[in-house]
Structure formats: C-alpha cells, structure tokens
C-alpha cells in the first residue's frame, strides 16, 4: 500500500526533516507515527499525500511514485487518499451533508449515489441526525467526526490523519478513535501521527517512532515511548 525508500527531505532553510527513511505499510494496517516535537512526524505524514515532496528517494502509494507525480495529477491522487486534520477544515457555509457530499461532487459522482453514500458515512460516525446542521452548531468532536466522514466518503484505500485528537478532550478522543478502528476493521489502511500516549498504549497497533528524521523504532504492537 505505502512504501518509502531512501527518502530525504531538506527544507529551503537547511533544516533536515527526514533523513533516510525506508518503510513499508501493508494494506489494512493501522499504524501510529510517534516521536518528540520537531522529529519529522508531520513531514513524514505530509509527504504521503504530497503536501510536501521529498528532496530525494521514492514514495509509492497504490503503485504511484509520489516523488515523480506531476502537480496536475496531485488532485487525482488525493481522491484515493482520505486525509483528516487536527483543525477539521470544514467549510463553514455548508451544512454537514453538503460538506461530506462536496468530496463526491468534485469527482463528478451522480446525485443518487452521493445521497446514498453520504448518509451511509454519516450513519457510521453516528451523526446522521446532524445532516442539516452547520459546522458552528457542532461540538469539536462532532466536527472531527464529520471531517472523518468526508475523508472516507469516496472509499479511499488509506486514511492519513495528522493529530486528529489534538484539539479534543479525552472522552471525545476515544469516540473518534473508535470510528478510526471501525474504518480499519472494514479494510482501510490507517496511518496516524499522534502525541496521545494513552491511546497508543491502549490500542496496541503498529508503532513507528521518528526521531531526528529517522525511524528509530518499528514495532508490530508498540507503545508510545518516553516523549512529551
């Protein structure tokens, strides 16, 4: 599903964010990316959906080498990858239903399929009853669940999440994680950068630890480690 080979990333200011990473993530895995602040986690995650390009090396997702992908092809790539952010990124003037439907409209899906699929994913995140609400009428946890629904509405093979519980209280964070686990149980690969020690240590998934731009630990049923 995801393969990185000899990947390096140096920013224009000379900061080396990724320093020679080799990793493979298989279809259906649930992977946490952990490490101290400034370790390179966000760059690692952003390169998977081509928010950042590697300075050198190969990144392959679903058979596509992102390092060589033309800019014009990036939107097409992102249709096959679900991305969930810490700050939700919902469109404030659209309803819950419209926010989720928008992801299908941009790929030209017909209205009948859109309605059916949007209601399916809203049911999955237990917010079908909020379909006509606007984002500012929702709690933070509800907004994140809508963001998650939008990320999976096009049936992506992989969902990439960057600190998805970072702005949420502990109980709400667990609600979100239960949805992620359900998505993963249905066959979607999940890769998540997080600082949430309790969630990582409790859920016992694969853990990739990044320090100084390098993978220093890769455990099948890992723990968070001694990071702040």
UniProtKB/TrEMBL annotation:
Q: Does the keyword Transcription regulation apply?
A: no
Keyword terms of this UniProt record: ATP-binding, Cell cycle, Cell division, Cell membrane, Membrane, Nucleotide-binding, Transport
Q: Which CDD domains does the protein's record reference?
A: ABC_FtsE
Q: Which InterPro entries match?
A: AAA+_ATPase, ABC_transporter-like_ATP-bd, ABC_transporter-like_CS, ABC_transpr_LolD-like, Cell_div_FtsE, P-loop_NTPase
Query: What's the protein's topology in the membrane?
Result: Peripheral membrane protein
Which GO molecular function, any one, fits this protein according to its record?
A: ATP binding
The chain positions of domain ABC transporter read: 2-227
GO cellular-component terms in the record? Answer: plasma membrane
Q: Name one GO biological process term.
A: cell division
Does the keyword S-adenosyl-L-methionine belong to this entry? no
Compartments it resides in: Cell membrane
What PROSITE patterns does the record tag this protein with?
ABC_TRANSPORTER_1, ABC_TRANSPORTER_2
Chief localisation class: membrane
Question: To which protein family does this belong?
Answer: Belongs to the ABC transporter superfamily.
Q: Which PANTHER family match?
A: CELL DIVISION ATP-BINDING PROTEIN FTSE, IMPORT ATP-BINDING PROTEIN
Q: How does it assemble?
A: Homodimer. Forms a membrane-associated complex with FtsX.
Which function does this protein serve?
A: Part of the ABC transporter FtsEX involved in cellular division.
From the Swiss-Prot or TrEMBL record, give the protein name.
Cell division ATP-binding protein FtsE
| Gene that encodes the chain | ftsE
């Amino acid at each position: 599903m995801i393969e990185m080979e000899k990947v390096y990333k140096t920013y224009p200011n000379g900061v080396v964010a990724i320093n020679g990473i080799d990793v493979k993530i298989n279809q259906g895995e649930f992977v946490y990316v952990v490490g101290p602040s400034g370790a390179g986690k966000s760059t690692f995650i952003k390169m998977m959906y081509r928010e950042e390009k590697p300075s050198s090396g190969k990144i392959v997702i679903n058979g596509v080498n992102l390092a060589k992908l033309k800019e014009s092809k990036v939107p097409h790539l992102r249709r096959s990858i679900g991305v969930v952010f810490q700050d939700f990124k919902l469109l404030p003037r659209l309803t819950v239903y419209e926010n989720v439907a928008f992801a299908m409209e941009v790929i030209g899906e017909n209205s009948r399929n859109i309605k059916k699929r949007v209601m399916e994913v809203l049911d999955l995140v237990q917010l079908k009853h909020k379909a006509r609400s606007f984002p500012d009428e929702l709690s933070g946890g509800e907004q994140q669940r809508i963001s998650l629904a939008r990320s999976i509405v096009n049936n992506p093979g992989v969902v990439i999440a960057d600190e998805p519980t970072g702005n949420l209280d502990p109980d709400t964070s667990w609600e979100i994680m239960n949805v992620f686990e359900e998505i993963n149980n249905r066959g979607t690969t999940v890769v998540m950068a997080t600082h949430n020690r309790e969630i990582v240590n409790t859920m016992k998934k694969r853990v990739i630890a990044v320090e100084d731009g390098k993978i220093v630990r890769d455990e099948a049923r890992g723990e968070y480690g001694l990071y702040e």
